[in-house]
# Entry
Amino acid sequence: MNKSRSCVSKAALIAAGLAMLAQAAVPCTLAVISGRAAANGRPLMWKNRDTSDPNNKLVFFKGPKHDFAAVVISEDTAPTEVWGGQNAAGFAIMNSQADDLGDAAKKLDGAGNGAFMKLALGECATIEDFEALLVREKGKWDLATNFGVIDAEGGACFFETRRDSFVKFDARDPRVAPFGTIVRTNFAFTSPDDMLGGGFDRFERIGHLVEAARPQGRIDARFILREAARDLIHEKLHSNPLARPLPDDPAAPLYAHTNDTINRNTSVSVLVFEGAPSRAQAHLSTMWVILGQPVAGVAVPVFPASGKVPAVTTGPMTAPLNDAARAIVAYLYPDKRGRMVQYLNVTRLRTYGGEGVLPKLFRIEDRAMERTAAVRADWAAKKPSAAEMADFQESVAAEAYESLTKEFADIVGACTKGSV
# Structure
């Protein structure tokens, strides 16, 4: 699948800088949306994953009860942990680290979060199953996290979870979520210490984005991928680098500091889960995946009921889609000195190829979404075979990858030539 990682190593200095400079090990931005707040009436869930390791890929697992697709760290050749995924029964799970739910005195820091999610994906079909799993495993795992879950029965919840306890937040309960939406970053409302945790600025920003879109009926996968996941506005500074005038002097480009934005310099993947309309149509559950920083990658659909993941989303080492996105990241973050790896070259983002990076990515994604919407309508009327679903997602992902390498040929061409 991959000929070598030598091309990606051109961005190794950036990766090393991110590893040293990340303020938290795994800061993430999440949202759970109930069907009453989603545009299509079905639950929706989103995670921007932030971590110091830029290499992510998809793996398909055979679970004890349910098979599932999930994001893993590429270097993990026999993954025992996953960082978000969805199974063939329509159950999906994600998380964000919540250090304020840990216990430093007992050396509990959430080290079991990823392994617990893998367990849940293999065992659970519903949120009720997941809650029973939490009860059964109470006290056995090092957990310090916000688990987000949806299922094919319309469930949409967060569980603020620590080793010995958890608290459920149901997005369908008007007493908990009056408007059907719940967002989280890297702190918990049930923490005994409100001075711990992190991501407070991102929490405010995503709350504002979701609440602005909800009354307009715009909360869907496209909104999340295009507006929320790639958001570059600093909440406290009210800075919008996409609206500021660009400098006339090309030698003095506009930069944006992306350590506190939703699209962060340490963002490495995006997951958007679309719930199924019912258990009987669990095969319609869809996982949209961006491998790489949101402003540098494209989303492709994955159907866990297909029994596979697309070839360009996985590989024996790294995934071609992730490799291409990393090459674009290296172009957008050209200054590798110290903390300068946290600064995005906005001039490059907005002017590459004449129209900028984002319009190119949106055009590729629009094609994928149009094809997916059409086929899901057919699949709702007549259930396809697993092979049909696998062939379709393979075709969409391959087309997206080919388009990406063509649109950014001078950036990613050398790195991706011959990789698939």
In short: Residues 1-24 have pLDDT under 50 and may be disordered.
